[in-house]
Design a protein that fits this description.
alpha+beta, four-stranded antiparallel beta sheet, two-stranded antiparallel ribbon, 6 helices, heme, Holocytochrome c-type synthase, iron
C-alpha cells in the first residue's frame, strides 16, 4: 500500500514503474495471430500523442488563410468504477477519511466501503490521473493491465498477513485483523533485503509497511516486493516477502513461533 497522500488512497502508486514494465513486456511477448491479415483493409497504426498533436500544428508551408486547428477533446475510455478490496479497514485508522454519503465507486471516496467496511481501490481513471499528475509515462491502454496487477498484489499481501494472523483468530472478538494504516518506505531497505543483496540476490523494487489492528493490539508488518521469474504464460510475476516487524515484542514473538514451527 502506500504513503498517506490523497493520491495514494487506499494503496500506493510507487510500484507502478515495475508494473508498467512487466505489463508492456507481457504485451510485447504475445505471439502474433496465426490468421493471415488482409493488409488492404488493415487500419493504419495508431499515432503517438506527439504525432497526433503535431498534425494539428501550423507549418511554414500552410497557406495564411488556413483555418485554425480544431479543438480536440479526446474521449477517455477508462473505467471510473472502483473495486472493493477484501481488506477490512480499522475504524481507528486516520488515513483517507470517507466523506459522509460518498458511495464506494465515487472518486471522492478515498477510504472504505460503507457497506463492508473494506478498503476501496482506485479506479482506472483515478490511477491514470494520479500517474499523469506525478509525471509518469502513463497510457490509457496500460490501465487495463496495471490496475488489476495493483489490486492483485495488495490482495496477495493481505492473504500473507492473514496466514500470520491465523493462530490468533480463535481468540479474536472483533472479527479478525484489520488494516489501520500503511506507508511506503522504498527508500529504506530492510535488513533482510540488504543481507540478501550481499549474497547476490536482486534487491526489492519496493517496500511497504502496514499497521494491523488485532482487536486493539497493534502489529506492524513489512512487505518487500520483488520481481518474480516469468511464469511461462506471458503474465507479470511478483514475489512478496511479508513478515511482522521486529520493532515490538509481539513481532519478535510471532517470528520466533513461526521459526520454531509452534504457530
Amino acid at each position: 500500500m502506500a504513503d498517506k497522500t490523497a493520491d495514494a488512497c487506499p494503496v500506493d502508486h510507487k510500484t507502478r514503474d515495475a508494473w508498467l514494465a512487466q505489463a508492456r513486456a507481457s504485451e510485447a511477448a504475445k505471439p502474433p495471430a496465426s490468421c493471415p491479415v488482409d493488409h488492404s483493409s488493415a487500419k493504419p497504426p495508431p499515432q503517438s500523442w506527439t504525432q497526433t498533436i503535431s498534425s494539428y500544428l501550423w507549418t511554414s508551408s500552410s497557406p495564411s488563410t488556413a483555418p485554425p486547428p480544431p479543438t480536440v477533446h479526446p474521449r477517455s475510455n477508462l473505467d471510473e468504477n472502483r473495486v472493493i478490496s477484501t481488506i477490512p479497514r480499522s475504524s481507528s485508522g486516520s488515513a483517507c477519511p470517507v466523506p459522509h454519503g460518498a458511495s464506494a465507486n465515487a472518486e471522492v471516496d478515498t477510504g472504505s466501503d460503507a457497506a463492508s467496511g473494506n478498503w476501496v481501490y482506485p479506479s482506472e481513471k483515478m490511477f491514470f490521473d494520479a500517474m499523469k499528475r506525478k509525471g509518469y509515462d502513463a497510457r490509457e491502454t496500460d490501465m487495463k493491465t496495471v490496475v488489476p496487477i495493483h489490486n492483485a498484489v495488495n490482495e496477495r499481501a493481505w492473504k500473507e498477513i492473514q496466514q500470520w494472523e491465523k493462530p490468533y483468530l480463535e481468540q479474536s472478538k472483533c472479527g479478525g485483523p484489520k488494516l489501520e494504516s500503511f506507508a511506503n518506505k522504498m527508500d529504506r531497505m530492510t535488513p533482510t533485503a540488504r543481507f540478501n543483496t550481499i549474497l547476490g540476490f536482486s534487491a526489492p523494487f519496493d517496500r511497504h509497511d502496514w499497521v494491523i489492528d488485532r482487536c486493539g493490539t497493534r502489529v506492524d508488518y513489512v512487505i518487500d516486493f520483488y520481481s518474480g521469474k516469468p511464469d511461462g504464460k506471458g503474465g507479470p510475476s511478483f514475489y512478496l516477502d511479508v513478515r511482522p516487524k521486529l520493532n515490538t515484542w509481539e513481532g519478535v514473538k510471532m517470528r520466533a513461533l513461526r521459526l520454531t514451527g509452534l504457530s
